[in-house]
Amino acid sequence: MVKPSHLFYVILLVVTITFSIIGYTPSDVVIVGPSFPQENYFIEELDLISKKTGYKITYVTLNDVSYYLYNNSKKADLAIITNPSFLYGLSQSEIILPANEYYFESSSEIYSEYLLNLISSYDNSIIYGHWIRLFSNSMIWYNVNRYKELGSPKFNSFDELIEYTESYSTDKDGLWCLSIDSAENQPLLDYEYGESSGWIVSNWLENIVLANYGPEIYDKWIKNEIQFSDSEIILSLLDIGKLIHNEKSIYKGKEYLIRSQVSSSAVNLINEESKCVFSLMGHDANSYMPKNVSYGEDYDFLYFPSTDFTGMVVGIGDTLTLLNYDSSTTRVYQELVSSSFGESWANKINSEFVSARTDFDDSKYSNGFAKKQYKQIQNSLSLNLFRFDGSMLMKNGTGNKILWTSLRKFTTLSNHYLEEIAEEIDTRIKRELEEK
């Protein structure tokens, strides 16, 4: 016979277990991917899809999605991949599955041929996913009021921008807000640590190469068919040097550029104490801006200037991939890659969602920044002038292992070391590729 005092605990345990069973419903579809700004808006989109399909969807963030998939692919159903160079290895291991049958519309009407080739097999016959977001890193940010005071100058090339800067710098200091550091308290000449501190410089270089020489040269450079010591890249590096090695052109000078966080460029662009007008940053500058300022009124961006390749964009993006063909997985997948995905997100007043699809309804955008970025990217795609971030596509990770650290070194030194650093990059890349 159970004592009354014990009976209470038995009843409590039964009730607790019962409610736990009722309350716990395992996810029908698990999506793995990186953590990112506005992730909460993405979750809201998933909730809308969940209500529409009846499937419970869970998004799990990971530091290294590819590494996880190689070891735990059976624990997830869909994956978001931010670097297309990882897709081939994952597909060869049959972790990521073909998505050809889910291209019901003509694929060329949804994405550009270039984007499709990035996520396809070598012969382009098998497509391993759908692009869901794209971002531009080809922007010249400016302070609206200071830009107007200059007379709202227009630039047809990066050379014109440099010439204007040199002319302006004879009268006033600090036209540019520039920063490259990604790690606090990093030693000034520490090239082998804090490698990510060169990533923003690689963005500058990629934009200049594409703007000056176009997609053909850009693609050959990424494939290492054109080396850093070749004239096209040397001259592009020199363009960077003309800007960053001119102390008067940079707010607080070059040492501040090296030591200050990348995000400070955006803050300084708006800071009343500074005089800088322009900054070289990508789409993420918008998220670094102070909360008390607004896009369009206080700051805006110009498209990266180019004489022969007007409309070029260097960007990044997210690809959604299939890990199984379960009915729940494929149903959710179809919703995520549809033309209507992201409409709720785009309607947020601070939205930074930029659809990768050509047929996305841009009237859904409530945010001028997101809409302008969408139009910039779609125009570049239509002209075949969109190219993916080169440092992410370079073979065997040489982009971040070698390029970032070497470009940081170039930033700390001067143009006198230009050819020496370019040859050093080529030697390091050659050695890295041979070891692989």
Write structural notes for this entry.
- This protein has 436 residues and is an alpha/beta fold.
- It folds into two domains: 24-128 and 314-382, 3-Layer(aba) Sandwich (D-Maltodextrin-Binding Protein, domain 2), CATH 3.40.190.10; 139-312 and 393-435, 3-Layer(aba) Sandwich (D-Maltodextrin-Binding Protein, domain 2), CATH 3.40.190.
- Helices cover 45% and strands 11% of the residues.
- The protein has 19 helices and nine strands.
- The protein has helices spanning 4-23, 39-53, 65-72, 87-92, 107-110, 113-118, 144-149, 158-168, 199-222, 231-244, 254-259, 264-270, 285-288, 327-336, 343-346, 368-382, 390-393, 398-412, 418-435; strands at 29-33, 57-61, 78-81, 130-136, 139-143, 278-281, 299-303, 313-322, 386-388.
- The strands form two sheets. Strands 1, 2, 3, 4, 8 and 9 form a six-stranded mixed β-sheet that branches. A three-stranded antiparallel β-sheet has the order 6-5-7.
- β1, α2 and β2 form a beta-alpha-beta unit.
- The N and C termini lie far apart (73 Å).
- 39% of the residues are buried.
Topology (SSEs and partners):
Layout: H1 4-23, E1 29-33, H2 39-53, E2 57-61, H3 65-72, E3 78-81, H4 87-92, H5 107-110, H6 113-118, E4 130-136, E5 139-143, H7 144-149, H8 158-168, H9 199-222, H10 231-244, H11 254-259, H12 264-270, E6 278-281, H13 285-288, E7 299-303, E8 313-322, H14 327-336, H15 343-346, H16 368-382, E9 386-388, H17 390-393, H18 398-412, H19 418-435
Parallel strand pairs: 1-2, 1-3, 8-9
Antiparallel strand pairs: 3-8, 4-8, 5-6, 5-7
